[in-house]
Amino acid sequence: MEIIMSILAGFLFTVGLYLILTKNLIRIIIGSSVLSHGAHLLLLTMAGLKTGAPPLLGLEADTYVDPLPQALILTAIVISFGVTSFILVLGYRTYKVTGAAETDQLRGTDTDE
Amino acid sequence: MTEIVDWIVALLALFGAAFSIISAVGLLRLPDIFTRSHAATKAATLGVLCVVLGAFLFFMVHTQTFSLRFVLTLVFVFVTAPVGGHLIARAAYNAGVPLAEGSSQDALSRSREENRHYNEEKNDNDQ
Amino acid sequence: MKYNDIILQTVTKFISFLIFLFAVYIFFNGHQEPGGGFIGGLMTSAVLVLLLLAFDMETVRRALPIDYKLMTAIGLVFAVGTGVGSFFFSVPFLSQTFGYFHFPVLGELELTTTLAFDLGVYLVVIGTAMTIIQTIGEDK
Amino acid sequence: MSNWLILPVLVPLIAGIVALFFPKHVTAQRTWAFITSLILIGVNIFLLTYILSNGIMTLELGGWEAPFGIVLVGDSLAVLLTTTTALVALPIIYFSFSTIGVEREKYYYYAFFQFLISGVSGAFLTGDIFNLFVCFEVLLLASYALIGHGGTKTQLKESFNYVIVNVVSSAFFVIGVAYLYAVTGTLNMAQLSERVGEAGSEPIITVIAILFLIVFGLKGALFPLYFWLPGSYSVPPTAIGAIFAALLTKVGIYSIFRTYSVIFNEDTAITHTILLVLSAVTMIIGVIGAIAYRDVKLILVYNVIVAVGFILFGVASLNSDAFVGAIYYLLHDIVIKAALFLIIGALITAAGTSKLSGMGGMIKHHPLLTWMFFIAALALAGVPPLGGFPGKLMLVVGGAEAGHYIVVAVMMVASLLVLYSVIRIFLQGFLGEPMLTHAEQHGSIKAQMPPIVFLVALSAFMGFGAEIMYPFVESAAETLVNPRAYVEAVLGGNS
Amino acid sequence: MILNAIYITAATLVTISILATLYRVFKGPSMPDRVIALDVIGIQLISLTALFCIILNTRAFIEVMLLLAILAFIGTVAFAKYIEKGVVIEHDRDS
Amino acid sequence: MFTILHLAIIAPFLAAVLVPLLYKFIPRIHTGWFVLIVPIILFSYFLSYLPEVSGTGSVMKTFEWIPSLGINYIAYVDGLGLLFALLITGIGALVVLYSIYYLDKHKEQLNNFYTYLLLFMGAMLGLTLSDNLIVLYTFWEITSISSFLLISYWYTKEKSRYGALKSLLITVMGGFALLVGFVLIASVTGTYSIRGILEASDQLADSPLFLPAMLLILLGAFTKSAQFPFHIWLPDAMEAPTPVSAYLHSATMVKAGIYLVARMTPLFAVSAYWFWLVTGFGLLTLIWGSLSAIRQTDLKGILAYSTVSQLGMILSMLGAGAAALHYDSIDNNAYTIAVAAAIFHLINHATYKGSLFMMVGIIDHETGTRDIRRLGGLMTLMPISFTIAVIGGFSMAGLPPFNGFLSKEMFFMSMVEITHFPQYSVDSIGILLPIVAWTASIFTFVYCMMLVFRTFTGKLQKEKLPTKPHEAPFGMLLSPLILVALVVFIGFFPNTLVPTIIEPAMASIMPELAQTGSFGVDIYFWHGFSLELFMTIGVVLLGTAIFLALQKWNKMHVIFPENRLFNQAYNRSLEGLDRSSHALMSWHMTGLVRDYFIYIFSFTVVLLLFSLFGTGAFTIDVENMVPVSPYEAILSLVLVGSSLILMFTRSRLKAVISLGALGYTVALFFVLFRAPDLALTQLTIETVSVTLFLLCFYHFPQIFDALKETKFHAVNFVISATVGLTVTLIGLSASGTRLFPAISDYFLENSYKEAGGNNVVNVILVDFRGFDTLLEILVLAIASLGVYSLIKLRLAGGENK
Fold this sequence. Notes:
Chain A is an all-alpha fold.
């Protein structure tokens, strides 16, 4: 399973980065979202996919899975939500103000004023 | 007792899975959006009903807990699935998605004419 | 022509109340079962989003006149406040404590300072999600 | 007592939160920001002196013992940096009063600013690698908000690139943490240090070290990861550009300092060679950039990159002299970059353009500004006895000690070209035929002078008063050379 | 043991149907088709989660099921409104 | 301790701070008068040191500045230092006096001028009176900078700025070399104190760093002293006001290099490289400078090249003097004469060159031009100036009875003497040395004659002069008159200088020899019909011939075409640097974020894969892995499928739908891996995000729907796939190398006991790692406020439509 998960994470990275490498703003934003999914899955995998109960002590199981990475991923998910929403708005503001839907239209800092 | 329930649960699970498959096949094979919507909502809800019921029984027997949340889930699915199906179908119709070729009549054709101007998002519909 | 979303709106009225209760439940139960401030907050925002979807910005605003930016700030105050308290008790920053109290009607209940912290999280999450959605929605 | 250690993070945090409640009262916002920055400086200086006499200070947040909870570690290096941060924040805030514009001030400018400071201080203090990530996100989000703040065309053009690059680097940060956790099973830097030490020269750790180098290099604008920097630092208003140039890359560099001295100190052959080569190339590419452009902002921005190379050269040299040099340089660079950005901001205000070709003879109407720039430029190039010198000297000493003569030579050439690049601004912008008569001046810069003078004086103090700073710098370098003390302070030496 | 095998088979079947539904998301041809497919995926996910609960013998995911039900609905509504009107949240419906 | 000596040294700096105030508040009095006090007081103060340092004495006062870095301000007055201190303050006083008349108080920005000048004076004093190398270096850089400021004093002139930049770049380059050289020395000897280093000189001599350190220090000295080929900055520095030239280029700035060479002689003179480099470059500069001087038409240009040339001469003498250090005692050590000659000439050069510069300044001031093609016949109009010019010029040419003659004789003598030196193969090729010296002297004679006669004799061309020429006011003539008086005085009574100044200075240069007795220097006009005398006569005869011939042809440029090789090299390299760096930058800084990512990812991948396989870190550990269930495999396919849709879709709505599907699948994976909280969060966030995407789509344009240019991009794919592969490989290796147990058991154990929570993940979030969460909600808050201000705050310069 670790192999599959690692490959999956790698695959999500591939897709995310491929999208980021395109010039289209929306695709880039979506790419960043995919990328963070990949990172989260990898973090989960790296913590070890131990068999055990979910870390709820109320279940009174013998073994539990590692709760720490879950907390970390939760933090990371929430952060990437914040970032994604910001970048989304940034993207459309950029489009509205500069008229650029592709990053190659965002070149040149000195054409202002 | 537990054994029997377990078998029932297994059976329910299989049924649910079968419904699920049916709905998926329906979704794949049926000719247009409206018929597909039918397959989706009907079959899937039934599938979910079976499986969740199974789980409900399973835990009732194994952990002696009666979890209201299973029921709540079912209620939710049953309340929302038709509304969702309705909304999409209406949206599809208003967005001008064509009916299957064999459809005999389009009951809402007049209202569709009136709604032309809402269809600016054509590009969303595949090329 | 206008669409009437009677079906949607009726269902929403019913459902959103249920979800909200569920969200509050999940929030309070977060220390023992899956849930907590984040999920509770997000679910509450989901309710609000549903309301916005079914009705419209103005209607919802009239029904719930909340400044979500302020809500975010208040949430932060809650979260930071539990930490600042530690200065007065000379325990490390953000130390949380809990105890079991007996209440007349409810019986034995656990009360923790983390609840205040989590409430902060809850408020911030709602505030954030709704500020974002509202500002985008309002943008012409 | 140890709770004091949270204050460098908490003070700006609370300041920012409180500022959220009255966004439209500009005067109140200003006063509040100013007062809290003053408090922040006081707190930091107190901590600094306290640490110097009592040794490394730790704060186990929430009262959870060290490897399990999050621990803040205040060693000299960290607190020196937070202090410098506070010292730079104050003048920049003051500078903002007159330059940033009331509109921006009404839209949470000071709150973002304070959150940025909070995140930066947190990144300096934290002793937990994941918490470092979170602190990074705080400062990044604040920087995203600031870089696009106001939403002018140029700003938006660059902010998107900036944000997306940092999003990618954050993703890499997360997977770096993931790998590290897989191999070592912990997040606490002190315990990481121990465990990596026990593991010996495990090759996978080297790979992870390099991944972290890339992640921090991206934040720190190391070659070849600096591409995002020039655009994004040159577009926002001066005050924002100043705080970015002063602090943001430094956080990345600090993280390299920290991780490479505390955690990845076992197998240095590969990592530090890479670091050495990269630092040299970074210097070169930075000066090339600084020379290539005729836009004052861009010239300065590329100088930010040069400094990155200089400082990392100290890390790559791996001896205590080099570390002393790197820390001196790092601290001074924070101050001088802020100063130069503010000066350039005032210059642009006065000249109405950022192009060198459009300005000249500023000395005629703005002699004080001229001399401030001149001194700052010399300090930047490391001309004694100004503030840049002790750092540069010790870097050379350390580099020579380590036998990296070629890089020392590169560094000297780079310094010369740095001087060339800024002196050109002086010659064309400040000297030369005045382009504008007094009546044509584009705006008064009187209100902008106090922070500039303060920062330049601070920079000069860092040169003349190098002796006063030395004990702090030395003990900071000590923790880098010998991370044992750090580990023991955190883990209590018993685990 | 055989029970477990049955559960796993059921789970596998449901996953296969998800995969099939995903094909509909991919294929379209119209946007509402995709949305319907997504809605179905949501519902199938509920089934799958319930099966996981059984397989893993844990009650931990009941909330997940409930949430899936809620969110699938919200998602569907949002998509439907978007397709129909181009705008998800109206500013003021009465004006 | 901070003593009066320290105070004296930095006094000019303190005065420099006062100057702007004086200028501002007492505008009626020429600021120069106030400034004049400083060098006069200092001069008399340093005179008081004469008795103390006579012989081998010295005074040392330590002020601890940055002791931790080994930087102490040690003021050290010995013969050499005092000589310079007196020159600096003495000539300084005269220059200030001169400038009071030269610079108009209404037209000039005197505050700037005197601030720079005082800065410079202080720097020179500090430089020559410091025992600590770093402090010396500090002052060294300040001289470069203040001379930069002085040269660019008339800042509106393009040429001033050009000259200033040139001198700054060249001298600072030398300065940096010097710094590294000092550091190298200190890394061997462990101290920055010159005293200490001299004591450890044996240690240094054996070190492999000896040669690099020496070369670096020489580079510093040569650039400062305008030695070939670094002399190019000096002629351009003539753009400075003439008092500045008189000061910097006669007595101070350029002599700093000489000072350094003299200072370092005891340390490095044991090396053959030192001998040949110093002597060789000195002579090369001497001849190059004198040849170049002839080509000049600008009076100051002539003086500039003459300075270059004379400096070369002094340096060559110092180089030759290195031979003396190969002997243990003064007896039978004929080479000490070279050192004596060097010091003597140093003083002489300061006197006559100072007066000549001032004379040129007067001419410039009174006639409005310095071009010798327009000048001529001023003798009758400006008799006093003419006298000054004659004395100064003849002294420079080496004619009796002036001091220049004496030192020139000694120069010849030492050059002849050095050919007898038995080492370094001087006996074979050394014969070149006197020949070069002699040839150069001929040209020196020629340009001196040009200077004097082309200006003052011949026909007066009034129509070519911008202003009507007349003699300068007395105040302006005073300083040069004092200097020429010195020229004459020293010429007649050279031996007054010997015990007071020359011998103590020699003792500093040759400290070990000085221990063995007196140098016994005796300078006199007539020492029989020696070789030197014939050399001088030859110089005069041939020089006169050439001068007259040149006079007749008047086309010296035909014989000596203007050679601007090194200037062009400098200009071209700066231009080239500018252009190529611009080209390089615009080539790779395309402004396109995709390109940047390509660079970044390529770099990342190369580095990571290299280290992964290079160090043998790659392992796969199949042992401890969790088995795969069929539905897990299929679920993975779902994930792959939905991301593939994302990758190739052309419709943004399709993209968002599949993004939603992807997110839901990820949530399901969280369920699979027993993370209920994660699954819940992921689901809600995914839904809210999808809503957000849909909301934002309203604001994106219609054309945006069909995502343009979606054709498969092979390069992008290869790069992203490699990154993905790397991530996978490292992931496999990392999960295959679990070295330690995770710390998480603690959380499981203590979650209920200590924190009262059963949901460990939640307890970690709000309690164990509550700080993370605190900052995390801060992130959220910033994001929302950021979004708010992005949308609501629209400043001018935004919004296209």
